[in-house]
């Protein structure tokens, strides 16, 4: 019983991810796309949770690492025979080489991690609002550079012809991998030290923990996971622009994390699935969906309902749907 | 050298005008932050609502249209405070900020639904068009609205400074901004102080709505969104803990944007956002409490 309880924070989200993945193989094509999309959102939100949840520092910059991972994986998997035409401006090393699906995902994780490490070295000295705005500045810079620098990517045009390898299987395995890494980190010595700095910076420092170093580890790991999630994303979409990994995605993923409960892995997974599920259900309701009777709502309702429900959850339950707790068999345990 | 040469009186006046508008928004955001410790990301949507009101009342006389704009923006400010800010008063800054994202998203979606009833996105706002005409002052062509913006900012900020410095409620607001818990213990009424701060910030949003609508008379759901983000960056870079440093930060980022846009040809500005945001990061690393915040106060880790 006790041993099960210790593993429940991994097993519960993993079971949920597998259930969604299995469901995706049983439904119509359009629902399959929504469910795969939800699983990729899980990967992104859990990646953000690794830093934001464990450190308590708000970052608006994690989507930069998703963007870097997505464009790294995308540019490196466009078939060589088309690449010389559609991405002619690239540096020769990028233009003349392409890699397979799995390698591209690992390279995406590496790119996200290295970028996060470089950015985190100076930035992790900040906390509070200054950290929020500085990480937002990173997002702006990443977007600006990716959009204008055609030697490393498609620039302002659409990156296309990326192999669409992220189906139900790859999305499920990818989300599971991210959840497992996040769980392992949370249970490790490093994860515990970082959470100590979140609960009480002064006491943690007095116990010999370097706040800067612990935050930097988490930021780098979060960047690597976000890069990996970006790889999943680009292989799901097949074609994408820099605008798709910018402000809107930043707000949506952060909202998912806060709605689920910012302080737990379980909250990150539940929040991502709940918000994407609601969003795709309402998208169908706008076209008329059969739920016993035909539910048909006017166009645009989806956005209003998602916004209203998010605000409602936050006002009524500010600590999120899961109250920021991990699942537990013992009733009332925090 | 070429940059300096390109900065002429024309550019400077426009830059001051832009800085004035941003300063007004910075004060609106800073007032609410002072008493609630809440960054209202939905502030831009208040401006947007005011702009739509102006567009939809285009047929009305100018004064009536502006009055309608003030009524709508103030009503929305108060509703936002009651429904969202008040229940969240004790929550962490992250939760409050994300909630205002949700509110911003909600208001933007409502605006979109109302806007696309005529199957096009964007509503023209015509009534105050004459304010866009240029007048020549000492050889410099200035749009009347720029003059109006600078004047409105000066008057509004002056009145606000008087209110904060000379009246009892101003004293209460300053006390609440310094230490909310202690101020309450000493008899400052929390709801009243917050209510007034929200109302004042609503008035400023309405003024900004009028100015921005005259400058860009096509109103869309993302109206004032970009401005809000830039002002928020300016406010934090300036120093959000004090109203005057926040205002100065807002003005500075508006002024700098105006000068750079006026001075550099567009083909040279593709990486400009990167340079500006790199500068923002540098300032935050060197002065985390804000560029204009008084120096010499090391960051203190809060105990107990």
Tell me what the structure shows.
- The complex is a heterodimer of chains A (334) and B (304).
- With 334 residues, chain A is mainly α.
- Chain A has 14 helices and two strands, in the order H-H-H-H-H-H-H-H-H-H-H-H-H-E-E-H.
- Chain A has helices spanning 2-26, 29-55, 62-77, 80-86, 92-95, 101-123, 128-148, 168-187, 189-199, 201-206, 211-237, 247-260, 265-285, 301-316; strands at residues 289-291, 293-295.
- Chain A has a two-stranded antiparallel ribbon with strand order 1-2.
- Chain A is globular.
- Chain B is mainly α.
- In chain B, 69% of the residues lie in helices and 4% in strands.
- Chain B contains twelve helices and four strands, in the order αααααβββααααβααα.
- Chain B has helices spanning 2-6, 9-36, 43-56, 62-85, 93-115, 144-166, 168-178, 180-185, 190-215, 225-238, 243-263, 272-286, and strands spanning 123-124, 134-137, 140-143, 218-219.
- In chain B, helix 3 packs across helix 9 and helix 6 (144-166) packs across helix 7 (168-178).
- The interface between A and B is large, with 44 and 44 residues.
Essential attributes:
heterodimer, A: 334 residues, mainly alpha, two-stranded antiparallel sheet, 2 strands, 2% strand, globular, B: 304 residues, 12 helices
Task: Please render the helix and strand layout as text.
The complex is a heterodimer of chains A (334) and B (304).
Chain A: H1 2-26, H2 29-55, H3 62-77, H4 80-86, H5 92-95, H6 101-123, H7 128-148, H8 168-187, H9 189-199, H10 201-206, H11 211-237, H12 247-260, H13 265-285, E1 289-291, E2 293-295, H14 301-316
Antiparallel strand pairs in A: 1-2
Chain B: H1 2-6, H2 9-36, H3 43-56, H4 62-85, H5 93-115, E1 123-124, E2 134-137, E3 140-143, H6 144-166, H7 168-178, H8 180-185, H9 190-215, E4 218-219, H10 225-238, H11 243-263, H12 272-286
Antiparallel strand pairs in B: 1-4, 2-3
Helix pairs in contact in B: 2-6, 2-7, 2-9, 2-10, 2-11, 3-4, 3-5, 3-9, 3-10, 4-9, 6-7, 6-9, 7-9, 10-11
